[in-house]
Design goal:
Distance between the termini: 64 Å
CATH topology: Immunoglobulin-like
Strand content: 25-35%
Helix content: 10-25%
CATH superfamily: Cupredoxins -  blue copper proteins
CATH architecture: Sandwich
Strand order of the largest sheet: 1-8-5-2-3
Number of helices: 3
Order of helices and strands: HHEEEEEEHEEEE
Structural class: alpha+beta
């Protein structure tokens, strides 16, 4: 009996963990993964084909520097992202609608972990990179989706010409 109870508890905890995984939004009614969302602006870039490198700073004033970026269509960009703040921040690429939806989900599940190619999450004082090929022209967005950060104005945009 004890082994059945332990097995049941383990199964429930695994199901709960999977329900809170970043790419699984069944609870929000969304059928697409974030990889599919981000494909509206391009795809993960090949590190060997980087044509532009940009440094992005994230800080506790809930701002990105720079917050407005201009890129040529077809460029593969290496974003060197630094968290100069004292709390966790992230840079997530997507449309403003997708980012709003995901920010609301993050409010409900603040412990949600991220592992998608269109984002980088960083602890205080850490740096990381995000490589993306912008294959489509248009205006695209990025934001920090840590609970409350998007709502505080931590977002920016990318114009691809």
């Amino acid at each position: 009996m004890k082994s059945i109870l332990i097995a049941s508890s383990l199964a429930l905890s695994l199901l709960s963990a999977n329900a809170l995984a970043h790419g699984d939004e069944a609870g929000s009614g969304a059928a697409q993964t974030h990889d599919e969302h981000a494909s509206s602006m391009g795809k993960p870039g090949d590190p060997g084909k980087v044509s532009k490198t940009m440094e992005i700073d994230m800080n506790d004033t809930m701002r990105f520097t720079p917050a407005a970026i201009s890129i040529k269509r077809g460029e593969t960009v290496r974003f060197i992202v630094k968290n100069s703040g004292k709390v966790k921040h992230e840079m997530v690429l997507g449309s403003i609608e997708e980012l709003k939806e995901h920010a609301a989900l993050m409010q409900k599940f603040p412990e949600m972990e991220h592992s998608d190619p269109n984002q980088v999450s960083l602890d205080p004082g850490k740096s990381g990179e995000l490589i993306w090929q912008f294959s489509k022209a248009g205006r695209f967005d990025f934001a920090c989706l840590q609970p409350g950060h998007f709502e505080a104005g931590m977002r920016g945009h990318i114009v691809v010409r």
